[in-house]
Amino acid sequence: MKHVLLFAGLFMTLAVHAQKSSLTEYPGTYKLGRGDAAENSTVELKEDKLTISGRAGSAYLSMQKPDTFSVDEYGGEVIFLRNAAKQISGIKVIIPAASIDVEGTRVEELTEYVGAYKVGSGDDVDEVKVSLKDGILTVSGSKGSADLSRQQTDTFNVEQYGGQVIFKRTANKVSGIKIDIPAGNINIEGEKVDVNSAPAAYVQPAAYKKVTHTPFVKQGQTDLEAHQGGCGLMPCNTMLSFMNAVKLDVNTLEMDCVISRDSLVVLSHDQFMDFTMRSPDGKDNITALGITLIPWTIDARADLQRILSLGVDGIITNYPDVAKRLINGKK
Question: Which of 142, 191, 210, 272 is the most buried (most CB within 10 A)?
């Protein structure tokens, strides 16, 4: 009988330890709701008891079954959601008494891996991006993308192709990445791109730091640029316009574009500093900073002649044939 009681006591002890251990995967920060109504809620483990807290208050949680808990103070349920890798990735909170029925995603822990990484070396340099959506990390690059599932701290399995992604740390901060996918013959390493480490020259206004460089055109020469290939002669931004401009022996082919925040190239026409770049005073102010002055877009013959007489470094026009004749002193 003593043996039976001993085994029963041992079984109860193991069950308690298993339950305590299973609770450790739930704590974290969860973003509930969407858009402007979204807010963070925190799940914590205190004295072997889970609590959930947010703007509306806090409550204790009691396990009903794996991943499902009752809200002790208010009734209702909290259900933890898992991703394809069986990891806790989200939460659903249902409290009828408070008219609460929302879902959310886990937002902490994995966010430190998100970012851009410069991998490879020399001519093989590439950029790899790690993103987080619905609690799942995704790595993407020029060769494709794949979801990641955590194997252990800083080590993830590549779901679609096999292999591993291992994140490196410096001073306990994620600083690099190693990607090993045998099936794709990929074995590369790289460093995380720190968006806050841009050189001062790129973020300091010209008023505080004078820009100096060697002009790209020689003294006394003018760089003739065909605006979008020469829109006055051929359709803008087409191979036909570029080929025609090359036949006219222009120095530079120009195309207006901007880089958006998501790194997409978007065609645009920038009118910034238009007046400044077309006036004598503006020309002196610009060149005094050591900046190359190339006004755009000058088409009328009289305007072309006037702008050229300012001694600009270059000129952009839809009529490179007319500008070419004026530069050569012809009418």
Answer: 191
